[in-house]
Design brief:
about 0% strand; transmembrane helix; mainly alpha; about 60% helix
Length: about 260
């Protein structure tokens, strides 16, 4: 089923966009038009949600075992604000330039890689801290401490549909890099998220910081490259896109009651 999704998305081309430019070469395949209102709501979600859980972690968790979770959550909030700047500068109307035409796609790329990825990286250690918080779970005298075991990994499963979103071609990165590069970047992010969580559980916080730092550097580099690549693609598309043929003028209808000669 997943392979069929890949094939359908690779073979389907927008009906409204020409595929060959005036120079005889293939035009860049830009991301599809998206609803800016939906992405503006996503900006609000990715600003308030990580901020709320960061405050909850600071209030109820044990500071000694925070690792780098709080920093990741604050990074997720801050980059959501930056993504909102990109989304807000989207324009296709009069005076729009190449940058404003790709602002929504650029904002979605920032949100996907610099806000969602850090949030997903922070979720597993965050849940572990909240599940074992002495403030949230004050033990009664004589109570038996029940360990959650493997069920602690359930919140971490949110990374799997995100990987499907990215690898099946729904993400913005799919239109910027090749399929192989897209797979390498996302699988590297998945591996670093898993490795950082293992380092956190082993209380190896120095290794966790190095792994998370590498993850953030990869995501930031990809975002920088992606935003500039989107702008270049839009410039190439605008320079070589064939002009639409003007529609023939419609014949004026005779007024009601007028006599036809």
């Amino acid at each position: 089923m997943i392979l069929n999704i890949f094939r359908l998305r690779e073979n389907k081309v927008s009906k409204d966009r020409p595929r060959i430019g005036i120079d005889g070469l293939a035009l860049p395949i830009l991301p599809p038009e998206r609803d800016a209102r939906v992405w503006a709501r996503m900006v609000r979600v990715m600003f308030f949600t990580p901020g709320f859980v960061a405050l909850l972690l600071i209030k109820a968790g044990e500071p000694a075992s925070f690792g780098i979770a709080v920093e990741l959550l604050i990074l997720s909030c801050a980059t959501a604000v930056v993504a909102g700047l990109f989304v807000g500068s989207q324009s296709d109307g009069a005076g729009a330039d190449h940058s404003s035409r790709v602002s929504l796609w650029s904002g979605s790329l920032v949100l996907e890689l610099m806000s969602v990825v850090p949030f997903l990286c922070a979720v597993p250690p965050l849940f572990h801290e909240l599940a074992h918080s002495k403030l949230l779970h004050a033990a009664a005298p004589g109570a038996i401490d029940v360990t959650l075991g493997a069920s602690e990994l359930l919140p971490a499963m949110a990374v799997l549909p995100f990987m499907l979103y990215q690898l099946a071609g729904f993400g913005t990165l799919h239109y910027i890099v090749s399929k192989t590069t897209n797979m390498i970047i996302n699988l590297a992010a998945l591996g670093l998220i898993i490795a950082a969580y293992v380092a956190n559980r082993l209380a190896s916080y120095d290794h966790e910081r190095m792994l998370v730092g590498l993850l953030v550097v990869i995501m930031a580099t990809t975002v920088f490259y992606g935003v500039l690549k989107l702008k270049r693609m839009q410039e190439t598309y605008d320079a070589n896109c064939p002009l639409k043929e003007p529609s023939p003028p419609k014949e004026a209808k005779p007024a009601e009651g007028a006599k036809v000669a």
